[in-house]
Structure formats: C-alpha cells, structure tokens
Specification:
single chain; alpha+beta; Phosphatidylinositol Phosphate Kinase II Beta; Phosphatidylinositol Phosphate Kinase Iibeta, Chain: A, domain 2; six-stranded antiparallel beta sheet; four-stranded antiparallel beta sheet; globular
Amino acid sequence: MNHESIFNMTRRQTLIARSIVYTILTAREDGKPARKPTLLKRALRLFYMYWLTFRLAREDIFRTLRRVWMVDEDDYKASFNVRKQSNTKNKEVLIPMGDKGYSGSTFFRTNDGAYLVKSIPRYFEHDFFKNDMLIPYADHMRANRSSLLVHITNFLESAHKSIGTLLGLAPSHHIVMENIMYGQDQDQDQDQDQESHNGPKPPKWESWDLKPSSYFFPERDIAGGALTSQATKSKLADEFNEKIWLTEAQATEFQRQLENDTLFLAHCNAVDYSLFLVRISAPDAPTTEPEPPLIQLEETGTEPSPPFALPSPPSWRTGIVSSDGKEVYRAAVLDFFWATHTVHAKAMTTLVQGYNLIDNQGPMSITTDSREYRSRFLDMCRELVEVQS
C-alpha cells in the first residue's frame, strides 16, 4: 500500500470517527442531530464523501438499556471525549482497529478502551437489527441481567444520503458496544515499561472468536483451502484447543445462561453468532469495586462507574475466576445480525444447496436453520468447559 493510499485511509477513518463522536456528544434526547441544516447544506451534503450526519436510532430504547446496565450518561459521553480524560497518550477521538471480519465491518475503540464502534455496512444486517430484533433484544436484556449477549449501547444511522454511502465508501450504520477486553491497553502500557528492565513476559491477555467448526466453510473446505489466501483464511473463526476450568456451579450457570440467550436468538432466526472468549492470568486481571445491591442503589441514587461495574457475584462480562484460581475468563455472544428469513440469506442458502448437488459438504453457518445452529453452538460451548472441584 503506497503512502497516498495510507493517507486517504487515515483521512477517511478520521472523518468517520469524528462524525460518530460528534453525534454521540451533541445529539438531542430523541437522537436527532442537534442542529437542523439549512436547505443549502442539505443539498450540498449529498456530495460528502466521508463526513456524515448521523442520528441515534431509537435512542429512547438505548437510554433505557444504559440505565438498566447502570451506565452513567456523563461517564458514557466522557468515553467519547478525550478532553474529559486524563493521562491519555493518544488524542484521537476514536482509535481505528481495522477490518476484523468477512462482513467488511470496520472497528474503532474509544480512547479509554471502554467501548467499541463497529460498522454494519450490509443492508440486510442493519435492517434486521433495527426493525426485527431491536425491541426483542431490549426486552431480553432487561429481563436477563446476566445475559451473555454483548451490551449494545447505541445504534447510529446516517441522517442523509451522500456519495460516500451510496458508493459504499462510508458505512451508513454503526453500533456502539462494550469492550470486554477493557483494561488490556493499560496492562500493555505497564508491560512495555517492565520489559525494558526485565525482558519479555508471556501474554496476560488472550482472546478467541469461536463458532462451531463442523460447518462447511468454502475458504477452508474447497480443495483443502488451497484456492484461498492465508489472509482470507485468517478471518475464519478461531480454534480453542484448551479448556475453561470451572467449578460445577460456574459451569451450570454458564450453560444455563447460554441456553437462555441462544433460545432467544433462535426465536429471532439468528445464526452465525460467535462466542468471544477472553483469558487473563489471574494476578494481572483488572479489579473493580463490587456493585452495591439494587436496594441500596434505589435508596442512595448512586450508580457505579461504567462500563464494568461488577455485579455480585462476578459476571462473565467482568471476569470469572477459574476453579484453580490461576485465570480469569470473560465471554460474550457477538455478531447476531444474520437472520435466516432475509432475502440475502435465502439466496445464499439456495446457492449452497446448488453446490451440494455437486459436492455434498452440508450447510454453512449462514445457511443452516437457526435451531440447528443453536444446537451445534451449545455443543461447542459444552466441550470448552472442564469441571474441576
């Protein structure tokens, strides 16, 4: 990649990031832009390439969810405002994390590492989430405080058409979600200081994006993967060949919550979601003050600081200590935007069925039935766990 391409990419990322931050910091309570553009500006913004005017879709729902998750609004906005953060080395409003998957999504993280911003560029995915899944998702999360589904705190959509969105150069929809790797950056900064004196240390933080591997993946299974580049194959789901060491009570609760969450996803016809697993060495895991009981919250009106106020007992969002006390695990279910009833999914299913007439490889994770995907996903999760008394 030449210097001009790198410059253009950096400029694109910077303008999109600033558009997102401006929206979150200035939008009205109903989610609409703070200022109504003049007629001339509304005409001219069609020619915007990367700067977009966003609105916060269904801000009433997400404001309620943030309240359920005990996220203070001022602290939440402070995560998107580097002027409100002390001791920040990087002064970028959002830090780009690159393209992390097949969907073409781009990622940013807030300067403090508390939240991620992910683009949802494909119409059938962001339309499904907004119009079919959002209200059921909110109901499920309100009723299930210990849900493993990732906490989505905002949904941004472009408030206008532009050349950038029409050409697919600037994604028109984004979600903001919690970052369960929160604390890693601070840990790495300390490691860098120590390495200069004591030499390299083994990794404290490890993560895996896990899906059932028994499905047909063309990039892996056609001609043994010889027709696909290593860069493309690296975007496939990870493999975890070790074990999560849990007590019997921890394992039972983990499985119960997974069954509850995946039943909800199956009812929504969602497939292809993944389990994002984080492992941290116990002595180095971040610590957080325990969350006060709900009764105390109601009496005092105080709220713990976001984004990871530890419930009591600890949750998979904040860290579960392994049965041997040596490791801390975090986990969340991600990427539940692919629905089997959408036109795009049906077209992909027909395509794969046609291929199976020639070489019967079975369904892909994006063309299978939602209940069948749930069954394989739960089997995968059961195999990860080893009970140790």
